[in-house]
Amino acid sequence: MTVLVPTSLDEAIAGLAANGGATLLAGGTDLMVEVNEGHRHFPWPDDGATIIALHRVPELATWTYDVPAATVVLGAGVTWATIEQPPLRDLVPALAEAARTVGSPQIRNAGTVGGNLATCSPAGDGLPVLAALDADVTLLSAGGRRTMPVRDFMLGVKRTALQPGELIESITVPVLQGWQGYSKVGVRNAMVIATASACVATDVPSRSIRIALGSVAPTVVRCPVAEQFAVERVDWDALTVDAGDAVEFGRLAAAASRPIDDHRSSAEYRRHAVAVMAQRLLQRAFPGGER
Amino acid sequence: MSAVDTGTRTRDVLGASALRPDGIAKVQGTFQFSSDLGGDGVLWGATLRSPHPHARIIRIDVSPAWKIAGVESVITADDVPGQMTYGLIDQDQPVFASDVVRFVGEPIAAVAADHPETCRRALAAIVVEYEVLEPVLDPEAVVAGTAPAIHPNGNVLRHQRILHGDPSVTGDIVVEATYDIGMQDQAFLGLEAALAIPDPGGGGVELHIATQWLHEDRKQIADCLGMAPEQVRLVLAGVGGAFGAREDISLQVHTCLLALRLGRPVRMHYSRAESFLGHVHRHPATIWMRHHATAAGEIVKVEARFVFDGGAYASTSSAVLLNAITHTQGPYRCPNAVVDGWAVRTNHLPCGAMRGFGVVQACFAHESQLDKLAEACGLDPVEIRVRNVMHTGDRMITGQVMQNVAPIERCLRETAALPFPDEPVGGHDGDVMRLPGGAGRTADVGHVYRGIGYAAAMKNLMYSEGFDDYSTARCRLADGVVTLKFATAEVGQGFVTLAPQIARDVLGVDEVVLDRIDTGVGSAGSSSASRQTWMSGGAVNAACIAVRDRLFEHVAARHGVEAASLRIDGIEIVDESGALRLSVADASAGVEFDETREYHHPPTEDLDENGQGNCHTAFAFVAHRAVVDVDPDLGLVKVVQVATAQDVGRVLNPLSVVGQVEGGIAQGLGLAVMEEIVQIDGRIRNASFTDYLLPTMLDMPPVVMSFVEEPEPLAPLGAKGVGEPPTISSTPAIVAAIRDALRQAGREPRLDRVPVRPIDIIGVHERPRT
Fold first, then answer.
1. Which residues in B lie closer than 8 A to residue A243 (C-beta atoms)?
2. Closest CB to B115 among A44, A191, A263
3. Domains of chain B
4. What percent of chain B has pLDDT over 70?
5. Does residue A70 sit in helix, strand or coil?
6. Residues of A whose CB is below 8 A from B118
7. Tell me, what's the pLDDT at B6?
């Protein structure tokens, strides 16, 4: 096994170009679990596999706030520990709330937003937020750069649009003007895989409401019917919503889910949970209404 | 209260919060656990396991594994020189399966190689051809006799009834329900690991092993190796938790076999996933109970039926079942009883010992019943329990008379009197992390209801049914230094802290050296059944007293006083007149006294066919109160506080007791709301800590506690074991609190199953409005 430890983005891309089948290693919080559980083998002593460790690539570990564009550009290697703290917490609060639910402090110090996206687990904690915020992902290879919506990047359970030779360079997250939040149900109060999750994000100037759900379909789902319903029912001057409308919003959101039964929970519970979470999130976004 | 003052210690004698001798090493990461053992030239061992819950083995071809460079040995059942099977009570479990596999994970072969990756390849290369058979997965089918036998010994591991008093008695008030308890894992953090070092010439083997009972392991290993017990020497390696999961053989025989065949040291380590397959678990159980009471709430009869799923092999199932059915009544008087208990074999993972040992399951049922009874009688949950408490001298449903101290009423009343949490839902600062759902931010304060629940338990101490689980200790005093030797497995419970405290107390020395824990001294019995403080404590105490007697004789002869007039005062020996006073260090200068003693508890007996007999040694009592915040719409909970008063006899080390109480409650909380091994079609689906959830700091609440100290005259140090009771009634107390919260939310909760899942909480229907 060969392990490359590039110290610049150019070096990483060159290494990737020379080893098309290389495995990318960022925080290792997904990859090493797969290795430890025997789902992924890098046989010893040598099978010619190449691993490119990205943690020493400074360009990937940084983020910028583009004020005129009203976006935050997150390097793929930005950790959850960085995202859950100010100043990022103040710019993208829902992503910070999602970050806080990722594993333990040790995991959040290692795990990255780019890794979350690249793994593309149905339960990926950051993914509903990126989908709700209409984030874009920028992919880089020796052949150049391409950018696509995160929602198009996620193709299915652990399947993405990432091509051999490409890595995730950055994720561009719009900074909205309005309440946003994230909820996640697990059977434990911390350090737990999502049974179901939801993100609601609002942008008051554009009168936009988005909701995205995690762990209730092969990949994150947005709920356009629920979004449209909420946009029409919210009192945009008072920033309130009727309790009954919040319940209906939850029902419509749940209707967009396609959950399964597995050893962690049942489809029935997941559908119920996203309805409750969506309802509560909308009421947090528009708190003036009667409960 | 849980605050323990460790700052004012003078001498670490009994009653002081002496610190663990290995505490700093464990905190700093330098403590050597069994998985840290190894060294140059030590080979790695690994185990091939069955992928099927039930299958016939048609053919095993190990030759491809032998062809892999670096593979040193490949062994199967054909290579077992001695007894082909082992087991704690019935020797029904094969060292390696050769004809039939009976659970997913059953060992079939083992390899030794130069590297774990070579081992992995070797295991993958072994060809096993199976004829897959229909698994037996329904315990009720075994009870009904409709399941085919999956073992030559049959599928019924034990059937025992209890008939006591008048079975025809009925009560004014009758409550009944069926309860289910899921399969809990001990989930120790230190995975199974061992290092076997063969003697030159192969005439014996030394095994360094994390276990609970060195001598029992030795007996079973020697039988399978075809050796005399003396040829097998066991040394306790660093144990990272046990909780019952190290009572049975796991990798012991495999590691020794590989080392002996090769004449080279071999180490084996299980991974977390393999550990779930490699040790026994807490029995899943279905328990029906019907209680009869007077209108005033006095219990007059209990009827019960227990079905315990023992999984593929017997392990300790028969003893676990005995414990369960003989604790049907809980800590309450009950003059009449009709109980039927079954422990059966299925193709599920084998089950055996876990902290609480059958009483956990019984307690969830009887405490849920007591709450139903309270509601039916219009009594509050503390009052119904106090009205029924057992006292010393009462006859139990086995006919056995409660001989020991039984302060259950004090436990209940002191628990109820402990302060409640002074913070509202979410805390004073409205921290969302403190709401049900925690970091997931699922709830706001307005969604949450707070409930309170009570439960109490009785737990037998030591082994039962005629078993002489004695303990041995050796004490040597020379030049003011005491050396203690025992084979008591230190599994985290703190006997390495307690034993020197006993020696300091008895002998007036400060310097106590602990010899290596190994089979170089007589058996100490198992570090199980809350028994080592009583049993090994009794042995250490007796050995120290024997040495003290010889020291007194020596001093008496030298100073011309009567030995009987001497006593220890701090670190000095004084005589009655006060004329003689000299330090123990001076008195023992140049001499050496060396005594070994065994401690045996009074004998017990088997139950007869009607479940009557003096089968238990002694009992301890405990009560718990839980305060739980519940989000009824999402089915999520946050345990806010657990209060407990526990019958401890006498506190020998307050800090140690606090640790046992808090740790036991964490394990009880786990069973209440999250810990369960999920098997579907006989296959475990959550063999990792990603999916087998243990409580985190955010799940575990503060514990307020009160020690009920009524020294036990039957116990050598006046102290009862404290390890198991905290685990037992904490679970039903938490579930009772969830039910209470749901009632306040207008729901009609059943919650007759643990762990309580979110779906169980939201599945309840709103109470019809009248």
1. none
2. A44
3. 39-133+192-269 (3.90.1170.50), 285-463+607-762 (3.30.365.10), 470-599 (3.30.365.10)
4. 98
5. coil
6. 44
7. 53
| Cα–Cα distance for residue pair B636/B438, rounded to 1 Å | 9
> Which residues of chain A are under the pLDDT cut of 50?
291
CA-to-CA separations, B659 to B4, B8, B9, B17, B318, in angstroms, rounded = 10, 19, 18, 11, 30
What is the rounded average pLDDT for all residues in chain B? 96
Half-sphere exposure of B665 (CA within 13 A, CB side): 31
Residues of B in contact with A193 (CB under 8 A): 690-691
- What are the tens digits of pLDDT across the range A113-150? 999 999 999 999 999 999 999 999 999 999 999 999 99
Cα–Cα separations (whole angstroms), residue B607 to A2, A18, B323, B612: 66, 75, 11, 5
How many whole angstroms from its chain centre is CA B381?
Answer: 28
Pairing of the two strands B85-86 and A221-222 = unpaired
pLDDT higher at B175 or A40: B175
Residue B598 pLDDT more than 80? yes
Q: What is the reported pLDDT for B651?
A: 98
The ipTM of this complex is 0.96
Angle, to 10 degrees, between the axis of helix A243-255 and the axis of helix A267-285?
Answer: 140
- What per-residue confidence (pLDDT) applies to B7? 52
Q: Hey, is the C-beta of A63 within 8 angstroms of any chain B C-beta? A: no
3-state helix, strand and coil shares in percent for chain B, rounded to the nearest 5: 30, 25, 45
Report the alpha-carbon distance of residue A84 to residue B666 in Å, rounded: 29
Contacts of B231 (CB under 8 A, 6+ apart): B199, B203, B204, B205, B222, B225
Taking the C-alpha atoms of residue A79 and residue A83, their distance in angstroms, rounded to an integer, is 6
Cα–Cα distances (Å) from B128 to B84, B208, B348, B519, in that order, read 19, 31, 21, 38
Interchain CB distance below 8 Å, B759 and A33: no
Q: Residue B769: is it exposed, middle or buried by C-beta count within 10 angstroms (0-12/13-18/19+)?
A: exposed
The whole-angstrom distance between B444's CA and the closest CA on chain A is 8
Report d(CA A274, CA B142) in Å as an integer: 41
> What pLDDT is attached to residue A36?
83
Closest by CA to B632, choosing from B437, B768, B435, B447, is: B447
In CATH, the number for domain A58-174 is 3.30.465.10
Question: According to CATH, where is 3.30.390.50 located in chain A?
Answer: 180-285
- The predicted model gives B238-262 an average pLDDT of 98
Q: What are phi and psi of B668, to 5 degrees?
A: -70, -35
**Contact B327/B358 with Cβ under 8 angstroms?**
yes
Q: How high is the pLDDT of residue A49?
A: 87
Among A97, A194, A280, beta carbon nearest to B444: A280
pLDDT band, residue B9 (cuts 50/70/90):
low
Which neighbouring-strand residues pair with A198? A183, A213
3-state secondary structure of B379: coil
What CATH topology corresponds to A180-285? Answer: Enolase-like; domain 1 (3.30.390)
Q: How many CB atoms lie within 10 A of CB B746?
A: 11
CB contact under 8 A, B442 and A184: yes
**B481-486 and B511-514 strand pairing:** parallel
Query: What's the gap in Å between the CA of B758 and the closest CA on chain A?
Result: 7
pLDDT at residue number B770? 34
The arithmetic mean of pLDDT across residues B237-241, rounded, is 97
| pLDDT single digits (tens) B312-353 | 999 999 999 999 999 999 999 999 999 999 999 999 999 999
Asked if residues A213 and A258 have their Cβ atoms less than 8 Å apart, the reply is no
Structural tokens at position B769: 């409005």
**Could you tell me the pTM of the whole model?**
0.97
The pLDDT of residue B578 is above 90: no
Tell me what pLDDT residue B5 has: 57
Task: State whether residue B70 sits within 8 Å of chain A by CB.
Answer: no
